[in-house]
Amino acid sequence: MRIIGRFIGSFLIVVLLGAAVPVLAGTSFSFLFNRDSVTNDNQLFLNLAVTHSGYERATLEPVLPRISYLQADLPVVLFLAQESGRPVDFIVGLRSQGLAWSVIFTQLRVPVDSLFAGIDQDPGPPYGKAWGYWKKHSREIRLSDSEVSGLVKIQLGSRWTEASPFELASARGRGGKSVATLVADKQGRHYGGKSEGARGGRKGKGGGHGGHE
User: Fold this and answer.
1) What is the pTM of this model?
2) How far apart are CA 76 and CA 82, in angstroms?
3) Are 46 and 206 a contacting pair, CB within 8 Å?
């Protein structure tokens, strides 16, 4: 009976661990690590985020299936890992609990001010409202997930181009282009000019959600 009990206990542990780390069968993340596999602007942006993060493929690949919205969330994960010094799997774990990005920023003691660095005046929509509230209530502000994702992309995109965060943020509103497209315009494309790519849902190849990208 003890042997059977131990077997059942071990089986349940394996099942629970497997449930905690969902795997999306058939999904390829090769474009994140190989520029030649990139086929659109969204994938290029994610490739740049990974390339400039300094993390090895062996570190990132195991946590990727746990990120529900790759396009929106992976840049935030990498940004927070760099700003906080915490491991990427720890940050993905917090997000997997259903926590909002603003809550995770607070838990990791990463100031929201880091999202507005280099934006010294109102950039206009879609970031102007958040910027104005931040200027008046920087300690109380709670940004939405889409606002956090968009502002992170502004910060990262500025690092890879010669444009300041303000220039990217204001250009985003004037031209209606996503940050990924603005970055690709400056970086150059080798994939035939496919700008956005398909708007996928959960865990797609460069797909995602969020209104301020």
Assistant:
1) 0.80
2) 10
3) yes
